[in-house]
Amino acid sequence: MEDTYSDVFGMLGSFLKKKSEAAIIKAFDDELIKEGKFPPRFLKNLKTIARTRKDVAKAREGVSVKSEKGKGNQKGSGVKKDNLTSKQSREVDNARKFAVEITTALVEHTQRSEMDVMEKARFLIRGKDSEAEVFFLKNLFLVQGANIQKLSGSKLVKSDTEELKAQLMEHKNAETKIDFKSLEILKKAFGEFELVY
């Protein structure tokens, strides 16, 4: 149960930039549920995960106290720490199921957001003999197959996917601005071209 809790709240904490359980739950409700990005039942499920973790921890504390008392009397009379009631086991199973559902939805949401950012900054450049993708970010990036270049000063220099991805993430909520000086440099490289959104 600890792993399940840590996975979900860790992932949500880094996504929402919150640390405490209460802050994560509140931000989850405000930023994802009320905004219509996730269904309302996800909030209830997240609270269930937190409650189940506390219930299991309390039950384990009680069991370890019982087993300590029973130690001196008889061999094997103590209860194992891992034993849960059938109701608690069902709650743990449900919490795990909810956790998988929430983390899957969060991963899909993050991927969609990244795709939206990429699509917003991405243009297609069509020259006489070639095509490429152009990204107008902090730097202009030119992608032709596996070859990635960025505009540095007045030259196209070799770059990589990591640098492109980092600038895409920085660009998340920024406007896409087309720099005409960059277009002039692309014109030297491509000749006459069309820019398609």
Keywords:
alpha+beta, 197 residues, 6 strands, 16% strand
Describe the structure.
With about 200 residues, this protein is an alpha+beta fold. Helix content is about 60%, strand content about 15%. A hairpin with a 2-residue loop joins strand 4 and strand 5 (about 155-160). The longest helix has about 35 residues, at about 85-120.
CA radius of gyration is 27 Å
Taking pLDDT < 50 over at least 5 consecutive residues as the criterion, the unreliable ranges are 72-81
How many beta-strand segments? 6
Portion of residues within helices: 55-70%
Average pLDDT number: 81
Structural class assignment = alpha+beta
Total count of domains: 2
Number of separate helices:
6
Distance between the termini: 48 Å
Biggest sheet features? 6 strands, antiparallel
Explain briefly what this protein structure is.
This protein is α+β, with helices and mostly antiparallel strands and 197 residues long. The protein has helices at 2-16, 21-33, 41-70, 86-121, 161-170, 180-190, and strands at residues 122-127, 131-136, 140-144, 147-152, 155-158, 193-196. It has two domains: 2-115; 128-196, no CATH class.
Please give the structural blueprint.
Blueprint lengths: L1 H15 L4 H13 L7 H30 L15 H36 E6 L3 E6 L3 E5 L2 E6 L2 E4 L2 H10 L9 H11 L2 E4 L1
Helix pairs in contact: 1-2, 1-3, 1-4, 2-3, 3-4
